[in-house]
UniProtKB/TrEMBL annotation, chain A:
Identification of the protein by name: BING4 C-terminal domain-containing protein
WD repeats: 311-352
Keyword flag DNA-binding: no
GO annotations of cellular component type: 90S preribosome; small-subunit processome
Compartments (UniProt record): Nucleus, Nucleolus
Disordered: region residues: 25-55, 546-569
BP-aspect Gene Ontology terms: maturation of SSU-rRNA from tricistronic rRNA transcript (SSU-rRNA, 5.8S rRNA, LSU-rRNA)
Gene3D superfamilies: YVTN repeat-like/Quinoprotein amine dehydrogenase
Top-level taxon of origin: Eukaryota
Pfam families linked to this entry: BING4CT, WD40
Source organism phylogeny: Eukaryota, Metazoa, Ecdysozoa, Nematoda, Chromadorea
Domain BING4 C-terminal: 392-470
UniProt keywords, alphabetically: Nucleus, Repeat, rRNA processing, WD repeat
TrEMBL record, chain B:
Annotated segments matching region Disordered: 291-319, 377-429, 459-491
Protein's name in the database: U3 small nucleolar RNA-associated protein 14
GO annotation terms (biological process): rRNA processing
Superkingdom in the source lineage: Eukaryota
GO CC, one annotated term: small-subunit processome
Similarity section: Belongs to the UTP14 family.
Biased composition (Basic and acidic residues): 418-429, 459-477
Organism: Mesorhabditis belari
Length: 569, 682
């Protein structure tokens, strides 16, 4: 019989005690020997086992971090029973797999986003819309258009969540809803009254119009569905799609929350901050931000009649406010010529830029492009949130003073409402390139819309759950528990002692004599009394401090005859 | 019937017989044979068993007389015994099921009526084709199609892994070629995976020591390469040196290393005790801060004053740094050449080496003294071996960088203000540097080395001075026995007055040409400018802080007064009310640290919103023992919006899967248990 002999030298093997496989020897040979090796290396060296050719591509740590919700804090060993431990282990594994699977699925986001770039030192801000339109494809070129509506004055605009439909509301009563991509008109009407703001509700089939006195709701063919007289002289409208809440900010400083799914006003209260003509929502936590004439920004939720947070943002009047889709950045513009970028999670100012005293409205796109209205021009800026912005990205001059600005979700388009109509601008790179069809579907069919409406209603979040930190709901409320405990302790000091009632259990023959019963009762009562006394003592010590309490008790106690000669403190 | 009647008995008998037929027969008594005692005795023929029966009888009598049978067990005891026995039996029987039960309890999905589920499974393609063939073609068209299909070489069957066509393709391939290809691919993959694994392992190492060694190796490698290059292609080497220098200068100029450099570190050691050192350190930090902030300010002012110089303003901070770094490197090259300072260099080296030797000697002496040993004879001075080429070059680079950090400003200023002249200079520099040869390069290196050595000496001296001063101070302190706080606290962060946050500015934007804004708006523009100016002087921050104070006051907790009315409040003439006595019964509200404390321009309400607390869990539910675990588990997103489709499905999988309206039968032993268990159970 023939036996195979593998021979190799000692230096090939190194410190490894066991015989190495052929593959590992190769590995040693291919790698150049460093001049000086790290001394611990050989100790830590592990034998590679299993499949050398990984079946799955490695995922980047950044992608994993993006999807991780902190599952590593979950320790199955801490469960109460063995069975629960095993179950928890399984659950944990599932959640860990979830993170990697979702991170891996990012490979499907194949659209890449990019900004306009110029050659030979030309500035992007000199590129006109016409030049852009000439160089893009036909379908994209149609996204730039101008509507000349001089008679009906400054326009307010709104897009649906999927960015497909556009609503226009002219100050002099003109309202129009249409699919802006196909330019198919749904309805057009003149309400013969001043229009202050317009807003789509959860679908394109219903929209709210704040008119001279009241708020009206119309459907897609222009039929008046409701007239809400509580919404008196509303200046700005917001819609919270997850909560089905329509929010109106009044000229009389009132804030109204209307649940459109049940048609009831959830809450309305005066903010006492003057006319609320600057308002926006934080899409991440449904908090309403209002800007005031004293340069402050207030954050509101329907569960509190006081502002949750007040920030001093500008030294002058606040003109515009916008929060980005992720709820991280807030942009504000003010009369002090500044545009400021804030971290809304920390309420800290990140950057400030001086632009112009004519600064008006502001808007943030999915890719954090910031558009500012300056008189009749729109100036867009990229990377403003990173602090590296030094000049406008694109600039466009409209025919009238700008009254409203909105970026279209999932599109590189900015809608501008101004005194002489409406302009749709192409801002390359501003929109999210990969459409999240589960979040909002721009290609929604009628059936899908109906389906979505029902689903959205079923998943409606109660308005009580609106708070600054959306993760709050997943936390155990230790604060109120502590508070209750403290209240209980405090009450020990000033509430009468409760009577101790104890009826001894009836025992069987021979053990339940009256004497025994009485004895047992005595013991238990005594125990309870001492327990309470101990608690009272502890509370006294906690709240009054040991010295004071002691002295207080001394004063109350029986006095000795000779105490009168003591020196009084 | 009377006795007296003359009854013919015979006639009567006949009559009866005629009526009843053969009744008479019944009454006929048969004569039976009678057994007598003799008969019985005669029946016994043998005498074999007679004696035995008699003995048994006697025995029985004896036993009965002495003891009785054991009484049956008491019912409870008997039950207990039976229970113990049957427990063992039953346990054995039930334990067989334990692993299955556990598995089912732990599993996240239980599937009943699995056979039904099979029916629901989609057919695989091979099955479908098989079914189609089994059914057979029906119409003419189908028949024709079937014939065509049958001819195909790519028909899949359940039996074979590969179709006929595929096999043919494989056969057609050259075996050798294929093997070679395969081998090569395998090798490539293996190499790649080794490299990957190696890289992954290396990237995980955190040890500072390792990285230090690694860095040193790299540096040496670089030097070696550089030397090689020098011998092969001096021009390229020069370029390389320049590039390296500019890299290093740029690195130093980014001001990343302001606080962490060796000099500052050392200074910090003394700063707490020595005022001068503290002042110096403070100075350094301030300088660093100024460098950081001024770079921006300058670009701002430039941009605002002169609009024609647009490109200066468009440069980012980093670009400016980079340029200045390059320039500084060049400036270092261009320094006026003195006489070759080789002798000076040697001297400096010697002095430095001496100082070092002195230092080490002192240290060792101190150690020995500490150990209570006698001092050895003073050591003979030795040449220090530290001065290797590799280190020296790196140090030169560092020194260049240090210069550049200080000098970043002036060259940049010059550049921006006199654009054209700077350009000319640049050209000159380039032309000159091109003409330089390697000898010059080395001379320069020597020069750098000398400077470095000088600096080192200075530093040593300074350190000594500090140490002396420290000692003096220590002694004075000891005599006075006075504890003093360190005079200066090292400020790590640049100081910004929090109240001035509204005046801060990130980056001045380049203003658009004025003609861009329409003439029509000019009036508006002026007006709003005027308004902005009017508001500018308002003390907005002060007003806001005032409001904040009010809110803080309002949200403070309330004290509870436990004193009862009448307590300690005697009335009458000459009675003075004693406040402190009453204060004893006041529970002071707990002071809560506000979230917006020490933050200007923000008020965060401390009132908890009732809405969310109502919905929050108050305690941790059953299997959890810690809050962290529970919160981590609840925090995980499970919806479609945040997960890939498969992950979502696996998370929300139903726990029990069964078809409706069907009985769920108990587990079948044969199906679930392994055979030996089944046998055991039998």
């Amino acid at each position: 019989m023939k036996t195979e002999v593998i021979s190799f030298k000692a230096e090939d093997a190194g410190d490894v005690k066991s015989v190495m496989s052929l593959g590992e020897r190769k590995h040693l040979k291919t790698e150049q020997k460093p001049i000086q090796t790290f001394p611990f290396k050989s100790k830590h060296k592990k034998k590679e086992e299993g499949d050398r050719y990984p079946k799955e591509l490695p995922i980047s740590d950044a992608a994993v971090k993006r999807h991780d919700a902190g599952i590593k804090d979950f320790d199955p060993e801490q469960m109460r029973t063995q069975l629960a431990k095993k179950r928890a282990e399984k659950t944990k594994r599932k959640y860990e797999d979830r993170v990697t699977a979702t991170a891996r699925a990012e490979i499907l986001n194949e659209e890449t986003s990019g900004f306009l770039e110029t050659e030979n030192g030309n500035l992007t801000r000199n590129v006109t819309q016409r030049e852009i339109v000439e160089s893009v494809d036909l379908a994209s070129a149609t996204k730039h258009f101008d509507l000349h509506l001089e008679q009906f004055g400054p326009y307010h605009i709104d897009y649906t969540d999927n960015g497909r439909h556009l609503l226009l509301g002219g100050k002099r009563g003109h309202i129009a809803a249409f699919d802006w991509q196909t330019k198919k008109l749904h309805t057009e009407n003149n309400v013969m009254e001043a229009v202050r703001d317009v807003k789509f509700l959860h679908t394109e089939n219903m929209f709210a119009v704040s008119q001279k006195n009241y708020l009206y709701i119309y459907d897609n063919v222009g039929t008046e569905l409701h007239c809400l007289k509580n919404f008196n002289q509303v200046l700005q409208l917001e819609f919270l799609p997850k909560h089905f809440l329509l929010v109106g900010s009044g000229r009389n400083s009132w804030l109204h929350y209307l649940d459109v799914s049940i048609g009831q006003i959830v809450v309305e209260f005066p903010t006492k901050q003057g006319a609320l003509d600057v308002m926006c929502q934080n899409p991440a936590n449904a908090i309403i931000h209002t800007g005031h004439s004293d340069g402050t920004v207030s954050l509101w939720s329907p569960s509190s009649k006081e502002p949750l947070v007040r920030m001093l943002a500008h030294t002058g009047v606040l003109k515009g406010i916008a929060v980005d889709q992720s709820g991280t950045y807030m942009a504000t513009t003010g009369l002090d010529r500044k545009c400021r970028i804030w971290d809304v999670r920390m309420y800290r100012q990140l950057h400030a830029y001086t632009i112009s005293p004519l600064l008006g409205r502001v808007a943030i796109s999915d890719q954090k492009v910031i558009a500012c209205a300056v008189g009749n021009t729109v100036q867009t800026f990229k990377d403003m949130h990173l602090g590296v912005c030094s000049e406008p990205y694109l600039v466009h001059r409209c025919s009238g003073v700008i009254s409203d600005l909105k970026f279209v979700p999932f599109e590189d388009v900015l809608g501008v409402g101004h005194a002489n109509g409406f302009t749709s601008l192409i801002i390359p790179g501003s929109g999210e390139a990969n459409v999240d069809l589960i979040r909002a579907n721009p290609y929604e069919t009628k059936k899908q819309r109906k389906e979505r409406e029902v689903k959205q209603l079923l998943e409606k979040i109660p308005h009580d759950m609106i708070c600054l930190d959306p993760d709050e709901i997943a936390r155990v409320d230790t604060e109120s528990l502590e508070k209750a405990e403290e209240e209980r302790k405090k009450s020990l000091l000033h509430v009468n002692k409760p009577a101790i009632k104890f009826t001894p259990r009836h025992k069987m023959k021979g053990k339940g004599s009256a004497l025994n019963k009485a004895r047992r009762k005595e013991i238990v009562t005594q125990l309870r009394r001492t327990e309470r006394n101990e608690e009272v003592k502890a509370a006294e010590k906690e709240f009054f401090g040991s010295g004071d309490a002691k002295r207080a008790r001394e004063d109350d106690g029986p006095k000795h005859v000779l105490d009168r000669f003591k020196i009084k403190r | 019937m009377s006795d007296g009647s003359d009854l013919d008995e015979a006639a009567h008998e006949r009559m009866l017989q005629s009526v009843t037929g053969d009744v008479g027969k019944r009454y006929v008594k048969r004569e039976t044979q009678k057994t007598t005692a003799d008969d019985l005795l005669n029946a016994v023929t043998t005498k074999r068993n007679i004696g035995q029966t008699r003995i048994d009888e006697t025995k029985r009598k004896q036993i009965r007389g002495k003891e009785t049978l054991a009484a049956p067990l008491h019912r409870i005891a008997r039950d207990r015994l039976q229970g113990a026995v049957s427990y063992v039996e039953l346990k054995k029987e039930v334990n067989v099921w334990a692993p299955i039960v556990e598995e089912n309890r732990v599993s996240d999905q239980l599937v009943f009526h699995e056979d039904d589920m099979d029916v629901m499974k989609p057919m695989i393609a091979a099955d479908k084709t098989a079914a189609f063939y089994a059914r057979g073609p029906k119409s003419d068209l189908e028949r024709e199609m079937a014939e065509v299909l049958k001819q195909s070489k790519f028909n899949m069957t359940n039996d074979a892994e590969l179709t006929e066509g595929e096999k043919e393709i494989i056969r057609a391939m050259d075996l050798k070629e294929a093997k070679a290809k395969l081998a090569q691919m395998r090798k490539m993959r293996a190499l790649m995976s080794y490299k990957q694994a190696n890289d992954a392992r290396k990237s995980k190492i955190k040890s500072k020591r390792y990285h230090r060694i690694q860095k040193r190796q790299k540096r040496r490698q670089l030097l070696k390469e550089f030397e090689d290059l020098l011998s092969r292609d001096p021009e390229a080497a020069k370029e390389k040196l320049k590039e390296l220098d500019s890299q290093r200068v740029f690195e130093r100029a980014t001001l990343k290393h302001g606080k962490g450099n060796a000099f500052n570190k050392e200074l910090r050691k003394y700063a707490s005790k020595n005022k001068e050192a503290a002042a110096l350190l403070e100075d350094h930090l301030r300088l660093g801060r100024e460098l950081k902030t001024k770079a921006r300010d300058e670009t701002d002012s430039e941009a605002s004053t002169s609009e024609d110089e647009e490109d200066a303003g468009t440069k980012t901070f980093e670009q400016i740094l980079k340029e200045s770094a390059i320039e500084a490197a060049k400036a270092a090259e261009m320094e006026p050449e003195e006489e070759t300072p080789r002798i000076q260099l040697a001297e400096a080296k010697m002095t430095l080496a001496k100082m070092r030797a002195q230092k080490t000697r002192e240290l060792e002496e101190a150690k020995l003294r500490g150990a209570g040993k006698d001092l050895p004879k003073s050591k003979i001075f030795e040449e220090n071996e530290d001065w290797e080429g590799g280190e020296s070059i790196s140090k030169i680079n560092e020194s260049i960088a240090k210069q550049s950090t200080v000098e970043t400003k002036p060259p940049k200023k010059k550049r921006i203000k006199k654009d054209t002249t700077a350009e000319d200079e640049k050209n000159d520099l380039f032309s000159q540097s091109k003409h330089k040869d390697v000898v010059e390069l080395f001379d320069e290196a020597d020069e750098q080395m000398l400077e470095l050595a000088k600096k080192e000496i200075e530093r040593e001296k300074r350190r000594e001075q500090f140490e002396k001063e420290d000692q003096i101070e220590e002694t004075t302190r000891k005599t006075k026995k006075k504890s003093k706080k360190p005079t200066s606290v090292v400020n790590e962060e640049p100081m910004i007055d929090p109240k001035n946050f509204l005046t801060l500015e990130t980056n001045n934007l380049n203003a658009l040409p004025t003609d861009f804004i329409e003439k029509m708006d000019q009036a508006d523009y002026d007006q709003s400018q005027a308004i902005a100016l009017a508001f500018a002087d308002d003390d907005v921050v002060g007003a806001f802080e005032e409001e904040k104070g009010e809110i803080e006051e309002r949200e403070k907790g309330k004290d509870i007064d436990l004193s009862l009315p009448g307590w300690g409040s005697w009335t009458g003439n000459g009675v003075i009310e004693k406040k402190p006595k009453k204060n004893r019964f006041v529970i002071k509200a707990k002071g809560v640290m506000r979230k917006d404390k020490s933050r200007a321009g923000i008020i965060i309400s401390e009132q908890t919103t009732q809405g969310i607390t109502k919905l929050q869990p108050k305690t941790v539910p059953f299997p959890y023992t810690r809050m962290e675990d529970f919160e981590a588990a609840v925090r995980q997103p499970i919806g479609r919006e945040w997960n890939s489709a498969s992950a979502h499905q696996s998370i929300v999988r139903q726990s029990v899967k069964a078809s409706a309206g069907r009985v769920i039968r108990p587990l079948n032993k044969k199906d679930v248990l392994q055979e030996e268990f089944v046998d055991e159970l039998k």
